[in-house]
Inverse folding.
């Protein structure tokens, strides 16, 4: 990542806060700088992990963010526009984008306060409330500072992020009615909404998926499984090798280039497909004040029987292409279609 190659340029030194509001404003400026779009988020997460490899969640977030980018550009590729109408594609993009933005807007200040805590050699987590970060995470970061339990911190951040998006995204009225509450049969199985892929340079795709994406407990389970895969001692170095050598573009060409037998999906780069979207956060509710933390959210998740998804992915792409051809054909055989009238 050349643009983040210089640590100081990525996270400049900020003196200890003499005027708290000025210090908070400088941190917020860093958050806003890297929360521009899916690419800047993906790169920021990864660069932070390289700076602080003890914060394993940051690498997990970067790899999951790559998947979000691929899902976004799919909606402007050569398959999904033939299956879905323009409005549906736009709404799905906004769903990915809103979730991606919301998690970063909450999580990156946490990472920054940890970073500056290591610089000042004293905890700065008491400032979490000034960034609207949950009381739950303030406690977990204080615990991590003392105990250095890297896995528990990953699990806590997964719990936090999934509860964070439950209200503003999953249960938000528009998305609930138009996306998560619809009967679109392909939403989870065909849009890869609940599937995450970790590529390797030699062409294999690893990953996992979960059914019932709308339930927070299922997404927590998926996050824990993905963590176990990503940091598995047999595989981690290959995922990291891919991340260090392949700059994220938001297009599936990032990894399809390396997959043998894959017919490229011809998705555009993110910057070609979408403009930068502005967001705001009008309400800052602390989800942890109304949720009982369950111990089983921290249980070890065994790996699924098959975490190599290369063949699954190839088959899924073939299915999607057939579906797109069938949908296109229906335009000509259904009576009363405007497209047919134009050509007769």
């Amino acid at each position: 990542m050349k643009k983040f190659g210089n640590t100081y340029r990525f996270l400049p030194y900020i003196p200890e806060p003499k005027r708290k509001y000025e210090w908070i404003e400088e941190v917020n400026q860093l958050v806003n700088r890297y929360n521009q779009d899916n690419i800047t988020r993906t790169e920021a997460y990864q660069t932070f992990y390289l700076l602080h490899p003890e914060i394993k969640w940051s690498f997990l977030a970067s790899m999951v963010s790559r998947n979000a980018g691929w899902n976004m550009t799919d909606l402007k590729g050569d398959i999904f526009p033939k299956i879905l109408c323009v409005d549906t594609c736009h709404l799905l993009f906004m769903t990915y984008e809103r979730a991606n933005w919301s998690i970063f807007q909450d999580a990156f200040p946490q990472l920054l306060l940890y970073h500056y805590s290591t610089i000042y050699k004293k905890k700065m987590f008491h400032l979490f409330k000034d960034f609207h970060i949950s009381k739950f995470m303030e406690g977990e970061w204080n615990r991590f500072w003392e105990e250095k339990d890297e896995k528990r911190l990953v699990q806590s951040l997964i719990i936090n992020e999934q509860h964070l998006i439950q209200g503003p995204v999953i249960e938000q009225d528009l998305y609930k009615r138009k996306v998560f509450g619809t009967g679109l049969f392909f939403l989870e199985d065909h849009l890869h909404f609940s599937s995450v892929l970790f590529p390797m340079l030699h062409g294999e795709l690893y990953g996992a998926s979960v059914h019932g994406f709308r339930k927070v407990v299922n997404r927590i389970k998926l996050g824990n499984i993905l963590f176990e895969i990503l940091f598995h001692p047999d595989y981690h170095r290959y995922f990291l090798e891919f991340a260090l050598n392949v700059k994220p573009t938001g297009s599936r060409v990032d990894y399809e280039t390396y997959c043998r037998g894959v017919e490229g999906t011809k998705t555009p780069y993110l910057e070609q497909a979408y403009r930068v979207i502005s967001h705001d956060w009008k309400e800052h509710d602390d989800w942890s004040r109304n949720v009982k933390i369950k111990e089983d959210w921290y249980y070890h998740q065994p790996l699924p029987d098959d975490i190599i998804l290369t063949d699954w992915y190839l088959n899924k792409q073939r299915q999607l292409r057939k579906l797109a051809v069938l949908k296109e054909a229906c335009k000509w055989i259904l009576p009363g279609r405007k497209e047919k009238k134009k050509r007769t």
About this structure: The CA atoms of residues 75 and 84 lie 9 Å apart. The first strand starts at residue 195 and ends at 199. The chain has one domain: 2-273+289-342.
